[in-house]
Protein 1
Amino acid sequence: MSLAQKIGRMRRTDAASGILLVSPTALYALLLLAAPLATIVVFSFWTQDYLTIDRSWTLANYRVAVTEPIYGQLMLRSLWISGSVTVATVLLAFPIAYFVSFHVDPARKSLWIFLITIPFWTSYLIRVFLWKVILGYNGVLNSTLLGLGIIDAPLTFILYNANAVVITLAHAFAPFAILPIFVALEKIDRSLLEASRDLGENRVTTFLRVTLPLAMPGVVAAVLIVFIPTIGDYVTPRLVGGPEGLMIANMIQTQFLKLNNAPMGATLAVLAMLIVTVVSLVFVALNRRFLRRQQ
Amino acid sequence: MRGGWLKIYALAYLVFLYAPIALLPVFAFNDGTIIAFPLRGFTFQWFAELGRIEALHGAVLNSLMIAVTTAILATVLGICAARSAARYDYPGKRGVMGFIMLPLVLPEIIVAVSLLVVLLQLGLSLGAWTVILGHVLICTPFSIAILNSAFQNLDRSLEEAAVDLGETPWSTFRLITLPLVMPGIISSLLISFTISLDEFIIAFFLTGTEPTLPVYLWGQLRFPQQIPVVMALGTILVALSIILLTTAEYFRRRGVARAGGKDTGGFL
């Protein structure tokens, strides 16, 4: 069989049509995602002196990143903030997803989901800025609480620190946590819950032993989809974080745009991605073990 | 009432979700330059001022152009990937699709700086088109997520019937498939448009001398006297987003109904 015939035959198969069809999108992702990510990794092994880039391979940037305390500190703080955001967002989101899945009339579920997603689609910058307005010294929250006589002096621990970043991000990422959990809860066969009740479990134990383990894939997805992007958030720490709430993304931005040290910025970006990946993998592995023990 | 305490919690949560947007019009119509309570009086002043800022108009036009182009490109790429995922099976499909969906979870700053480095290395100048490149990358996964359900709800026997009745694959796609997934396509266009219009981080890194609307807004947030105008602009933007999203949701639901599927809710 000649090559042309082979190709002709390939074209008629399903697999080939599928590959052909997906190729524009895959190619786009390859050129504009894979190639740039690879470039960043390469860059992290180079150095820059003012405007000239020294292309000899070196671990100098990594050495600086590990030895200079500021980078380690920012990285730890970013992990801590992202971790807190993730815990807060997922814990707050679970009851909502549970409510919509189990207590809302099926015909009105999509309306609830729609209501939950709307705030997410409105201008991110303005939303973050409004949290500054809400949490500020003369802000909405403080003036309301003062007016109601609940507090005597404005609360100061809620703006320009890590708490403000956590509150704002927990708001911004709410739908990202609610939707995966909701989808997982929707998939649960309701007769399993009835069976559990028939077998003498009460509502709490049914929830702990049937609903929660079955909802776990959704919770894991929610954790990852909140944790990974928040570590790279740049706007929220800048607007509401104050000096105490700055995160690694702010340092990456400074390295690239202000200090003109792209290789150092690249190194920090690579390290941040590596750390996030490792933490995520450990989390997924721990969760697998937990679920296996449950069975 | 079903749910009891959970229902109260859910309503409180909705208040938390909507608190920032609800405050937007309050300050946009407030006759005072300081964004704090107590309110002073009602005014249209800030909206009127919007009409007088030249730089803002440029930014709006730039953003609209970028958002429209992004929406079209991302949706075309989304159609290719979603159709191929729903209709065909090939080795490595999960890996390829996972990779295409990656920008959904990748921190935007990583996407932004990596694109920036490549563009600068290639000696290309930044501008609207570089923002479009970045936006298409992050909008395509959303487009695929929407279109996936549209293509998966599609009954394959309809297409087979068309082929049996003598249509070519292309005319089948045009006459049968496309009309059935059209609501999904419109929904994807609107969502991509909204994401691009609103996106800040990538635009901040990749925009050249002409800022997009969010980049312009970012600059204004530093000047306290500009804040009321920003609030007015924000009010318009939020109103616009809600209209667009409601339209997108309407089309998505119609698409689900048209394909005879069950509505499972949500875009994502």
Protein 2
Amino acid sequence: MVKKLLKYEFIYYLRTFGAFLPIVLVIGAVTKLFLFLEEQYGGKVIEIASGSSVFMLVVACFALLLLPTVVGIVRFYKNMYSSEGYLTFTLPVTNAQHIFVKLLGVLGCYLFCALTVIASASIAMAGNTLGNVIADIVGVIKGMAVVLGSINVTFICIEMLILLILSMCSNMLLYYSCITIGQTAKKNRILAAVGVYFAYYIITQVISTVFSIVFIVGGTLGAFEDIALWIAENYIASIHLIMCGGIVLSCAIAALFWLINQTIMKKKLNLE
Amino acid sequence: MNEILKCTGLTKRYSNVLALDKIDLTIAPGKIVGILGPNGSGKTTLIKLINGLLTPTEGSVLIAGNAPGTETKKLVSYLPDNSFLPSWMTAEQIIELFCDFYEDFRPELANEMLNRLGVPKEMKLKNLSKGNKEKVCLILVMSRNALLYVLDEPIAAVDPATRDYVISTIINNYNPNASVLISTHIIADIEPVLDEAVFINRGQIVLHQTVDEIREETGMSVDARFREVFKW
């Protein structure tokens, strides 16, 4: 059933913003053309044109990276809680499978969009510039491997990737939870969902501010000297610890939002 | 199996409003049952509970012995009272979707009915007329070989000619071992096909009899009996 659900997720995403992917690639190619002309012939007009195309490429890439989140939120709301919900919730599929597939769909879109952005940027920088960028990235990794050891660098990269995926998941689950809580309202459900998001934002800001104050005051009073010393002596372990802590925290947050979605879908479903 | 649907002490409360109040209802196989009541009587709440779209405050619903869930969704074919299909899809794509998710779906029957009615299958639903959209919804729901069909106001918003078509689609396409629950307040049109009538008012069942019993006992049609029971 997950495969079948996923098929319809991708059909939706493909028809919603599939056309943007080749457009961004074309912008990359146009940018490269103008940069080439500027390099070969120069001139004010070509300079302005290449500047504009670089600006357009940057904007298009940012838009493309933002699009999966926006489309994912709209898809979730329409598919689950608008009139389409009457079909969605009467398919022989569990709520957990629905949420899982929605997440997987968005992650898949992020991947496609990220690959398109990389491809488009590579086209725009093709030649010496791309070679220099790749050489710089390889240089940074090699430098890190000298300081931290190649095994540690590999693990840190893996941890970063896991953390990135989990953060994306917990963020999407947060948006889903806001929509799910919002749909329990009798009217103005979208407004209610936005309200829930702001309430969450304020609560997290208050908590992080309290932690910062404790940390700063504690630091001033010398309460964390032992910890600082331990970090200085074991900085590699500290990096792993921070990464793993982030992973655990993201898992916990994702699990909390997953549970909120599941419980409300089961007990407080309120379709229009 | 003696009963396809069994509701026991079924109660649903929305904050201060009691939508259903300790309903007991049993539906045997092979019956077409009208759930009849004025607006706000609790018909749609009952139907949503049967489909697992709401959770009972008290009591239970059993479909073929199971509480609403993934298993019962394989057995129940549900037509909501609004357009529930994704408007960005074509009828062809939705037939594929139903084939993917419902093992009992009969695509050849759905295609035949759509062809007979001249509904363009390659057109997106959002571009179809309201009447055609409703036909697509009904055809898809009735093209399943389900155990229980639950139709919420299937004839409320269609013209009399389409109404006749809807009713003939229902009686010609349901599995004889299955039951059909039809919620409506347009009784006269649906009366000829009903086996049983359930009158529901303010969340309570005020009458549950066969159509023949109603006619024999009162000498009235179901429509006339309804008007008498719900007279202001």
